[in-house]
UniProtKB/TrEMBL annotation:
Residues 35-138 form the Cyclic nucleotide-binding domain. It comes from Mesorhizobium alhagi CCNWXJ12-2. It holds the Pfam family cNMP_binding. One of its GO terms (molecular function) is DNA-binding transcription factor activity. Keywords: DNA-binding, Transcription, Transcription regulation. This is Crp/Fnr family transcriptional regulator. InterPro entries: cNMP-bd_dom, cNMP-bd_dom_sf, Env_Response_Regulators, HTH_CRP, RmlC-like_jellyroll, WH-like_DNA-bd_sf, WH_DNA-bd_sf.
Length: 249
């Protein structure tokens, strides 16, 4: 991950990928992935034994907006997407969550209904913990209670950052910023360029920045004509990282 425009860390080589959402502070994107790190091996084994393993293929639903809350899903591998669908049917992608994160909050003990949906953006291996199991673990393992607080704090920061971006940046700036996020979290260096090592459709970009596919296609073409990026059917290459970052600010 490129941090604040200087230096790179190859997350692919490190064996895992970052979560992705709109945020001004790129260094905090993956903060919630380590929320269980304070648990001992024994406590982590007990946690895993308390949950049910499940596998989902790309595109399959984890839960739907309006479903009753009944627990959380720990992501063991793959990528989950959270998204909201408005009354008009318009969809906005809230975040992509990678291994180490969880989806299904904030009602971790159960109760109420989900206010957004989640699905498998890539094939997923999940571990489902019911609300009653979580409550029992919180009551019997103090460190797990702190872990859940840490995880919920990270989620709160994520959605606060998203609201700030949607409320204070133009759609053009949000798109430029999103390309920087993808370049810094999924970028592979080729010469002086950063290849976004993830296939992203124009529809997906539009759902994240809150626009239409047609507008995204038109704006990407403008960025390309300015020499900021190169777009092909298979990939997006950031040619001028600092200039694109300047456009996003």
């Amino acid at each position: 991950m490129r941090v604040n425009g200087s230096g790179t860390v190859n997350e692919l080589a490190a064996g895992r990928r970052s979560a992705v959402f709109l945020s001004e502070e790129l260094v905090g994107l993956d903060e919630g992935s380590s929320f269980l790190d304070r648990l001992s091996h024994e406590e982590l084994a007990l946690l895993r034994a308390s949950g049910a393993a499940t596998n989902l293929r790309r595109g399959e639903a984890i839960f739907h907006q309006g479903d009753s809350h009944n627990g959380i899903w720990l992501i063991e591998s793959g990528v989950a997407r959270t998204f909201y669908v408005g009354p008009s049917g318009r969809e906005i992608t809230l975040a992509f969550w990678s291994s180490g994160h969880f989806v299904g909050g904030p009602e971790v003990f159960g109760g109420g209904v989900h206010i957004w949906s989640a699905d498998a953006h890539e094939d997923l291996r999940l571990r489902f913990l019911t609300g009653s199991r979580i409550r029992h673990l919180v009551e019997t393992i103090p460190r797990f209670a702190v872990c859940m607080i840490d995880g919920l704090v990270a989620k709160g920061k994520c959605y606060s950052a998203l609201v700030q971006m949607l409320g204070t940046r133009s759609v053009t700036k949000r798109l430029a910023h999103l390309l920087i996020v993808f370049a810094d979290t999924h970028g592979r260096t080729e010469g002086n360029s950063l290849v976004i090592d993830k296939k992203i459709t124009h529809d997906e970009l539009a759902n994240i920045v809150g626009s239409t596919r047609q507008w995204v296609t038109m704006t990407l073409d403008k960025f390309q004509k300015r020499g900021l990026i190169t777009v092909s059917r298979q990939r997006i290459v950031v040619e001028q990282h600092d200039m694109l970052r300047g456009l996003a600010e």
